[in-house]
Amino acid sequence: RSCLKTFLCICSCMSLPDFCNSASSQQGEVESGTRRKLNRLLSFQRFFHASRLLRGLASHSPGSLHILDNDYLGQAAHMLSKVETWNFDIFLFDRLTNGNSLVTLMCHLFNVCDLIHHFQLDMVKLHRFLGMVQDDYHSNNPYHNAVHAADVTQAMYCYMKEPRLAEQLTPLDGFLGLMAAAAHDVDHPGVNQPFLMKTRHHLASLYQNTSVLESHHWRSTVGMLRESGLLSHLPANISQDIEQQLGSLILATDISRQNEFLVTFREHLDNQDLDLQLASHRHFMLQIALKCADVCNPCRDWELSRQWSERVCEEFYRQGDLERKLNMEISPLCDKLTDSVPAVQIGFISYIVQPLFQEWQRFTEPSLLSQMMMSNLHKNKDRWSRLWCVHAASETQPHSEDENKWIRRKGFSTEVDGSQKLFAQS
User: What is the rounded distance in angstroms from the CA atom of residue 383 to the CA atom of residue 299?
Assistant: First the structure.
């Protein structure tokens, strides 16, 4: 394990060309078993990109995207002029940018927030970094892909524009919030932590079965920051602090820690002791904002919310199909034969989204945006309940049994109806 960590640290510090040159010079000495280890050690997609370079093949990057029609560019620019509105259609924006929504959105937000000028960022390095991040999302994932990252980033921007936060956030806070949102699920394999543990995946061993995916997202982001050289002009202590704070934000998205953050948030609001002039309190609120942005789909308009719901369930079902193929116990919510989309969404809203956004609404005192989100949330939950009734009419499984699958899936305990219920991580 120590050798593995050492190897990963070396890889994260080396640029990709250096790594390729080193690999080429030793190609004759590398045995097939070593190559298999290399395949495992590198992240899911980074190995693929590196191996293409080793074979002399051109790699795809946003810099080589097909030129868009001017009409499409004009429509995308028009959408960006309203990027702070809650009905922003990220699916349409992704089509208008030819699948380049994350890079386009981040470049725009960094510009309007004056982060490029404030941190004296090199545009070539910024574009390279964002392209690496976008490429490292798995486009074949129905849910955990670059469009989800762009959607979370747009939501995070909306939350950082909330008056109570916007008045106190520093440029560094804005930089961290947007960067963490864009990279929070990078290189997500489309399966959850329990699956990685059950299959004894090397990432589960590396991170000792604790925040496995979130730790991988963070470490992958750090590797790409260093490879791109985006922060190389900053003093080492500052760039290292940025890396650590990004880690703290991304790790906060681990849903098994939901109750931990919710209890602390509620205590701050009850005691009225949040002081956003303190860096630690601002950082905590960025963690809360990112957690909200990550699960905000049920707070969107129905048409957008429904699409996300169907996508996340499709990803669950794919994991279930894989578990069935491997003769493994099918994880909660992953059996397409018994777990309906309405039942999954009702549980998700009831146990995860609603408790968090109720406290967020208190924090915003409440703002017009939080009122709109809660209104959408209640309407969407009612709609899913009606759809569940139609689905359940032909099923024998009680509604409570469907909800109990959420209880077994989440990795934290929360008190519902006076009883402690254990959730397995989604």
Answer: 13
Together in a domain, 172 and 313? no
Residue positions in the annotated binding site for Zn(2+)? 148, 184-185, 294
End position of a domain, from candidates 237, 270, 294: 294
pLDDT confidence of residue 404: 52
pLDDT of residue 261: 98
Q: How far apart are CA 69 and CA 248, in angstroms?
A: 40
Task: Give the pLDDT confidence of 136-184 residue by residue, as tens digits.
Answer: 999 999 999 999 999 999 999 999 999 999 999 999 999 999 999 999 9
Per-residue tokens: 393: 């009419």
User: So which residues are the catalytic ones?
Assistant: 144
The answer on 179 and 100 residing in a single domain is yes
Domain count for the chain, please give it: 3
Residue ranges for the binding site?
A: 144-148, 184-185, 294, 345
> Which domain range does residue 401 map to?
298-422
Residues 268 and 337 in one domain: no
Q: Which residues contact 20 (CB under 8 A, 6 or more apart)?
A: 50, 53, 54
How high does pLDDT run on average in the chain?
84
Residue carrying structure tokens 């990279």? 183
CATH of residue 383's domain is 1.10.1300.10
Domain shared by 311 and 176, yes or no: no
